[in-house]
Amino acid sequence: MSNQKKYLPLILGVAIAAGIFIGGKLNFSDSPDRLFSTNSKKDKLNRLIDYIDYDYVDDINTDSIVDVTVNGILDNLDPHSVYIPKEDMQRVAENMKGDFVGIGVSFYTYKDTIAVIRPTENGPSAKAGIKGGDRIIMANGDSLFGKNLKDVEIIKKLKGPINTKVKLKVYRKGEPELLDFTVKRDIIPIKSVDAAYMLTEKLGYIKINRFAESTYKEFKKGLDKLIHLGATEIALDLRDNPGGFLGIAEQIVDQFLEDDKLILFTKNKRGSIEKSYATSKGKFEAGKVYVLIDENSASASEIVAGALQDNDKGTIIGRRSYGKGLVQREMDLGDGSAVRLTVSRYYTPTGRSIQRPYKKGHKDYYDEYFDRLESGELLDPEKIKVADSLKFTTPKGKIVYGGGGIIPDVFVPIDNSMHNETLTYLLRRGFIGNFVFEELEKDRHAYDDISRQDFIDSFEVGEDLVFAFQDYLNLRADSKVTFVAYHEEVKQYIKATLADQLFGAGAFEEVFNQRDIMIDEVIKLSDGK
């Protein structure tokens, strides 16, 4: 195949997609010379879309062509420049905004019916009297049950403008008739801070799952609570945190760094540099901080870890982070869709870029986790590959490296007992959560007399419950699944899920962290061991 034929699909794709950005109609009386002249390339791209619309032999949905082609163009850029179709924009915007308007319940479809796992604490449904285990049968006269009902349709019927009311009919076990509730829709937070509690008398813990618009307020609330409880040290857990807004990460770092310390700087293709410095707002500048990271900590998570590491503030614990040092800006495409385009690189205070290479293509880039796994890097810090040419030095003389994520100060290997294919399968398919829900359904009042803290500290999952879970799997799993080798780990997951469905508000993390080797390492460091 000649080079021209080889690259023809890409060239055509670029041409089609570029038309989205330009818009407008062409005058079809233009001469061929003008159509193909380098001075009229914008006209040429628009004309191509119009030719397909008006003259192509078959009926073609040019919107779908455009969507596919935009993705094709972005596939030839960096891995983090992405297209967001208009049908996904609301969900993406809500996730990053940190809230939405709704009735405030977490649910799953159980036997073709909406089963409430738990109403949002102090949310509209909780205030109206909705309880865990309730089945929502109807909303404003529309049925909400049946095999063909999808979660998207359910959510659409339950959401609506703020302060509008929705009339619900609810089945509650033990009640002879359906119950009627009127729920006034309100703003429902999407939590980005999963937990904030004390690990020891002096060591507080905060878990952040992403950096959304609301994250700093949530974080600050958690930090203030821990300070009030006597925390002089903070474990900031950024494991599995894919990032988010750069500005939110800067605000969080500011709580730990002294005035005028450099947090990061960004540089665009024109060489323009913007620097961000800590201010006088920090409430934890005198305290110790431990930052927990792993191979899934990316972007804004790495900004936090890199800024603290390069300023010799605190200790970074865990495994080498993801390695994303690119900054995106969301740009509206005019039809409800958008593109998040990489517009600059960010650098930590010592001047290092932690972006890992992506020249071999997106597949190799996203498969790097498996390379780390196969190389043994997740178990042995000596297997981490570093380049001497990307060596940097902090003000106190500590050596740090760029070119591929943040390398922790204290390495903690991956815990294969808690991170393995069997447990991952059980969690992703929702088996543990659904099983726990069904167990609670048998007698929700069985836990009425146990407090949240007593449950976390003292409750033990019995062997009978574990065997019941195995029986549950045998009936529902696509293939035979056994967890004999992970018996104790499954117990821990069942207890954590029970805590979450009973109490919410970080109870899952408090239970789960009791078996977490990285948390154990933080506590040892805090105790000086």
From TrEMBL:
Q: Which UniProt keywords apply?
A: Hydrolase, Membrane, Protease, Serine protease, Transmembrane, Transmembrane helix
- Pfam families in the cross-refs: PDZ_2, Peptidase_S41
Question: A cellular component term (GO) from this record?
Answer: outer membrane-bounded periplasmic space
Checking CDD domains in the record gives: cpPDZ_CPP-like, Peptidase_S41_CPP
Query: Which segments constitute the PDZ domain?
Result: 89-159
Indicate the family of this protein: Belongs to the peptidase S41A family.
Instruction: List the protein's name.
Output: S41 family peptidase
Native species = Wocania arenilitoris
